[in-house]
Specification:
It is a single chain. Helix content is 26%, strand content 17%. By secondary structure, it is α/β, with parallel strands linked by helices. An eight-stranded mixed sheet has the order 6-7-8-3-9-10-12-11, sandwiched between helices. The chain has a four-stranded antiparallel sheet with strand order 2-1-4-5. A hairpin with a 2-residue loop joins strand 9 and strand 10. The relative contact order is 0.09.
Length: 442
């Protein structure tokens, strides 16, 4: 039996407007999410920002109330609990928050923060709780004398260790790690991840590890679930997911990861467009506006979950033989280069010519054709007369043609312009005008 089972979990946030705060829509943060976590295992939940990962983690613990769906912990339904039964269940289900700065009360000492959960659940007396707090601080890499200090006296990594100690204080069986290492430096990330893995091994814990960092997810997780716009699109064991991703969105995510080998050339898949709004998600498959393998059926058919074997489940119509069989042959205008085929939206955008802002100001084709007829005296597209010389081309230099004026033209009376003497140029600046020559005659 699985430690945690989630079936058809839904969380919609109302959108209200107006003076009377009327509900005009819903933010579909989580929509029909289903998964399970085995005892002593870690499920890594990855996806873009805003896809609903944190909402899933908080809905499991009922920090926010789910709209619908079923959450079972050790066979007992969590969504129907209340009062003392819910408080007792929360002792076994804890959370490590993303921000180590705002998740700790600045007015409480470290000892009071870690001890608070034990006091609420009535675990031990005062001396036993203090001794346990000191032991937890040692386990997470802090010193016992830190018990009387305040959160502002610690670094980010130390504060996250305090948060881990607080989650471990009530001896839980399941912990939601909500971006537990995203706010830390890389070196501190490695220390915290190793600490979580060590606690998992020593205490038999199970994790829901929410993160953007695929390398950290690959290191700490046993299974991986990929989430997009409120839905889980692919789930598989870690080795299978990173070796053979099936969903186009998973392929794009893995292609964006850094490659440690500089000689290895990676085929980066760049998705077009932005993530649609969860207030008005696309019909059919929610990934089809950005999918490079989209088919016409993806626009109106919601893909079911297809079991590909060995725990690999994918929600994509590419793996439905009835839908994908007619589209297996690529169109003639797409070269078979082994790359992902362009989607239907991209192909339609290429074929439909949309004029730009400058092109829309130009005259229409009819106006330009009329201008050609008026200016050049010919119809648009009419062949121009051949002005080349007759005869085959030759490499000899052409004989120059000398034009002589006709001989029978009448001569003008008197002197011509060529017979007149040119006038002397005027004197330049600073020069004296030429004097008339002396008359030497007798």
């Amino acid at each position: 039996m699985a430690l945690l089972e989630v079936a058809n979990l839904v969380k919609h946030f109302p959108v209200k407007k107006g003076v009377f705060s009327r509900t005009v829509g819903h933010v579909r943060a989580v929509d029909d999410v289903t998964f399970r976590i085995e005892e002593g295992k870690t499920l890594g939940l990855v996806g873009e920002s805003g896809c609903g990962k944190t909402t899933v983690g908080r809905a499991l613990l009922r920090l926010i109330e789910p709209t619908s769906g079923v959450v079972r912990f050790r066979g007992e339904e969590v969504t129907g609990l209340a009062g003392d039964r819910l408080r007792a269940m929360r002792r076994h289900m804890q959370i490590i928050f993303q921000d180590p700065y705002s998740s700790l009360n600045p007015r409480m000492t470290v000892g009071a923060i870690v001890e608070e959960g034990m006091k609420i659940h009535g675990l031990g007396n005062r001396e036993e709780r203090i001794a346990k707090v000191r032991g937890l601080l040692r386990d997470v890499g802090l010193m016992e004398e830190h018990i009387n200090r305040y959160p502002h006296e610690f670094s980010g990594g130390q504060r996250q260790r305090i948060g881990i100690a607080r989650a471990l204080a009530v001896e839980p069986q399941f912990i939601v790690c909500d971006e537990a290492v995203s706010a830390l430096d890389v070196s501190i990330q490695a220390q915290v991840v190793n600490l979580l893995m060590d606690m998992k091994r020593r205490r038999g814990l199970s994790y829901l590890f929410i993160s953007h960092d695929l390398s950290v997810v690959e290191h700490i997780s046993d299974d991986v679930a990929v989430m997009y716009l409120g839905e889980i699109v692919e789930t598989a064991p870690k080795e299978e997911m990173f070796r053979n991703p099936l969903h186009p969105y998973t392929q794009a995510l893995l292609s964006a990861g850094p490659q440690p080998d500089p000689t290895h050339k990676k085929n980066r898949i760049i998705l077009s467009g932005d993530v649609p709004s969860p207030v008005n998600p696309p019909s059919g498959c929610r990934f089809h506006p950005r999918c490079p393998k989209a088919m016409p059926e993806c626009q109106h058919m919601s893909p079911p979950a297809f079991d590909m074997g060995d725990g690999h489940v994918v929600r994509c119509l590419l793996y439905d033989p009835k839908v994908s069989a007619p589209h297996r042959t690529p169109p003639a205008d797409i070269p078979a280069s082994g790359q992902l085929y362009p989607g239907a939206a991209q192909q339609a955008a290429k074929k439909a010519h949309v004029p730009g802002p400058l092109e829309s100001r130009l005259p229409s084709k009819e106006v330009m054709d009329k201008a050609v007829r008026v200016i050049f005296g010919q119809e648009p597209g009419e062949e121009k007369p051949d002005l080349s010389l007759d005869g085959p081309p030759t490499t000899e230099s052409p004989t120059p043609v000398i034009l002589h004026p006709p001989e029978n033209l009448p001569k003008p009376e008197g002197k011509s312009l060529f017979d007149e003497e040119p006038e002397e140029p005027p004197p330049g600046p600073g020069e004296e005008p030429p004097k008339a020559p002396k008359d030497w005659g007798g």
